[in-house]
Design a protein that fits this description.
alpha+beta; Double-stranded beta-helix; three-stranded antiparallel β-sheet; disordered N terminus; Taurine dioxygenase; metal-binding; taurine dioxygenase activity; metal ion binding; iron
Length: 294
């Protein structure tokens, strides 16, 4: 990569997906050298062979978020695909399809007061064991707009100065769902719970599969850094948020009907654009359970 983040003195982006061995059962077309790939040659409505499963796992690990076009899957097939990657996570607040608590409803139309995921975030990072990943299947799209942006937290971490990495090493932050979720889904008739998840996580987490380091704070859920004065915490977090939202770390996915995005929540943040009012965007999300960040 040629550019730097802060003029000539700034750090260069060092995280680029390396050339890997050829894939045998799928095609992998990178969206950017940093993050994202479209996967072809696979029909998710059909049972996947062990080799296909392995290669989808590998494509996710190498690209952080992967996309599938022209998929026609039932709710049961959507859930079954998610279970290939682990146990399923039930959202602590969002509405779900009747009889399927793991099948989250994603919907915005002309009557919606808001849309899902409008700000940069990592899904449910307030959980003690935040989700490993999310699989979003969009069945109805607006004619224009409604893209989702994804950002690599590997690249964001690697572009930090060595002094900042040293400062953040071993630091933790509190993530809290209370301010996010209370009253959020009232328009769906969802009643509030007595309390919502709250957890303390490392600011820099190590990915359990790739062993790479990634930033793990986000505007949506992170409230403060532990062990420093609140004004210092606010200043550092604001810097990190601005840093990690740099377009150089991102890819942008343009939805079409019957498309799927599958992102690794441990090293990716995302933001859904609500620029399509009064049109409708609708689908379902299956979320895969994760483990405690370290």
């Amino acid at each position: 990569m040629q550019g730097s983040l802060r003029g000539n003195a700034g750090p260069r982006i060092r995280h680029v997906v390396e050339e890997s061995a050829p894939y045998e059962t799928i095609t992998v077309d990178q969206v950017t050298p940093i993050i994202g790939a479209e996967i072809g040659g696979i029909d998710l409505s059909q049972p996947l062979s062990n080799r296909q499963q392995d290669e989808v796992h590998r494509a996710l690990a190498e690209n952080c978020v992967i996309f599938f076009r022209d998929q026609h899957i039932t709710p049961e097939q959507h859930l079954a695909f998610g279970r290939l990657f682990g146990n399923l996570h039930t959202h602590p607040a969002a509405p779900h399809e009747p009889g399927h608590p793991e099948l989250m409803v994603i919907h915005a139309d002309k009557n919606s007061p808001r849309a899902n995921g409008e700000g940069w975030h990592s899904d449910v990072s307030c959980d003690l064991e935040p989700p490993m990943g999310s699989i979003l299947y969009i069945k109805k799209c607006p004619p224009k707009g409604g893209d989702t942006l994804f950002a690599s937290m590997y690249a964001a971490y690697e572009a930090l100065s060595d002094r900042m990495k040293t400062y953040l090493d071993g630091m933790t932050a509190v993530h809290d769902g209370e301010q996010v979720y209370r009253g959020l889904y009232a328009n769906y008739g969802v009643a509030d719970k007595p309390n919502y998840p709250r957890a303390e996580h490392p600011v820099i987490r190590t990915h359990p599969v790739t062993k790479k380091k990634a930033l793990f704070v986000n505007r949506g859920f992170t409230r403060f850094l532990v062990g420093v004065p609140r004004d210092e915490s606010e200043g550092i977090l604001n810097y990190l948020y601005q840093h990690m939202e740099n377009p150089l770390f991102q890819c942008r996915f343009r939805w079409r009907e019957n498309s799927i995005a599958f992102w690794d929540n441990r090293c990716v943040q995302h933001r859904a654009m609500w620029d399509y009012w009064p049109h409708t965007r609708s689908g379902n999300r299956v979320t895969i359970a994760g483990d405690k960040p370290y």
